[in-house]
């Protein structure tokens, strides 16, 4: 469960990315986050994953108040969250398999179980058989899938995606959306940020619309 | 718990594998550390074993009394009686001049030397061993006292030079410790720099790992293990270098010591000394790595 209570985020320099925002996302819900770039979508996702801290108000993730958590505790919160980064953040110095292995290494997973899970995750996103390929050789869509595989391999309870379908053609973007839907169907809380609302409307899920750091409605 | 050790073992192995993947670079790095370490170590070994030898000499100093050539048996008896009643004298030995000449012939291999000489040029002598608890000052007093005995021409305190050498070697050992301390600091700085470069080279990986939930200790661990291997392997390499030195220098030192009828054994590091060296260098390397990691991981923030 994710709960925002009167959350304001002001960056150094005075820019207010989020203003007095309150909402709740239930466990297992699939929610879209819409708004133009600069509306505060990415900031909202960063607050949930503890990458940024709220200036005021409280952010509750899985019943933990991130604003009160010590910095040394944040990694353990993040280990329960899967993040699909807007800029992918793939490591180009290692192959596909090792990229997906990273979260399991961090948690300290048994190596054999881990290998099985990595293969399962790659299979799920349609990259089976590309384990040994270096990420440079992957297409843009495949890199996106690699990023998704890495985000779900440790079976997080919350999945955050920042513009997962940007720069992809519509057919590919729909594929990716279906993928997220399948994670939602097995009980994962899914929050997808995108500026293109046409994709979201097809799914009939709740849409949180942001404009200049506030609800736009 | 078993799993915890398994993860550490995994990191240790990976760090070692990473070093082996760049054999030349790693070897140069290790050599730099080992050479820096072997300087104080070899100085310590040499000064230590010399001091051990000199220490044996000073532990049982001897005073040699040379009698006048014209001394009569009655004079010998007088000296003998005052020596045997002296409270600071533990024992003494009389070497008659004839016996001294025979010894000389035997030892130098110049048999028949006496035939070329007009009579025996050597004096009668007493070799006096003082009580072992005597202080250096008391020994000096004793020497003066004994040289004042009738018909004693000269007295020689054979440990005086040994004590001076002992003092000199004391300085050498202190110098070895000082060098050891400064090279220890160098060790910390070198590993600090090595690990800093590694962190900078893997900045992207560290950033991503932090973003997906890596704790600081997870990120630090591979670097600390790298430092661990640096410390261990450079200590072993240093041991190899100093053993090589010992192998080269020991025959020369033996030759030298044989001139004095002594046997100085120059030995390599003992097992305990090697363990202490390895432990010390590992600790110093870990310290340097930890400093570098703490300093730079604070800079690499998750964004």
UniProtKB/TrEMBL annotation, chain A:
Residues 2-216 form the ABC transporter domain. The keyword Cell division applies. GO terms for biological process: cell division. SMART domains: AAA. InterPro entries: AAA+_ATPase, ABC_transporter-like_ATP-bd, ABC_transporter-like_CS, ABC_transpr_LolD-like, Cell_div_FtsE, P-loop_NTPase. GO terms for molecular function: ATP binding. The keyword Ribosomal protein does not apply. It is found in: Cell inner membrane; Cell membrane. It is a peripheral membrane protein. Keywords: ATP-binding, Cell cycle, Cell division, Cell membrane, Membrane, Nucleotide-binding. PANTHER family: CELL DIVISION ATP-BINDING PROTEIN FTSE, IMPORT ATP-BINDING PROTEIN. Part of the ABC transporter FtsEX involved in cellular division. Important for assembly or stability of the septal ring. Belongs to the ABC transporter superfamily. Homodimer. Forms a membrane-associated complex with FtsX. This is Cell division ATP-binding protein FtsE.
TrEMBL record, chain B:
Keywords: Cell cycle, Cell division, Cell inner membrane, Cell membrane, Membrane, Transmembrane, Transmembrane helix. The keyword Cell inner membrane applies. The chain crosses the membrane at residues 27-47, 171-190, 223-246, 266-289. The keyword Lipid biosynthesis does not apply. It is found in: Cell inner membrane. It holds the Pfam family FtsX_ECD. InterPro entries: ABC3_permease_C, FtsX, FtsX_ECD, FtsX_proteobact-type. Part of the ABC transporter FtsEX involved in cellular division. Belongs to the ABC-4 integral membrane protein family. FtsX subfamily. This is Cell division protein FtsX. It comes from Vogesella oryzagri. The lineage of its organism: Bacteria, Pseudomonadati, Pseudomonadota, Betaproteobacteria, Neisseriales. The gene is ftsX.
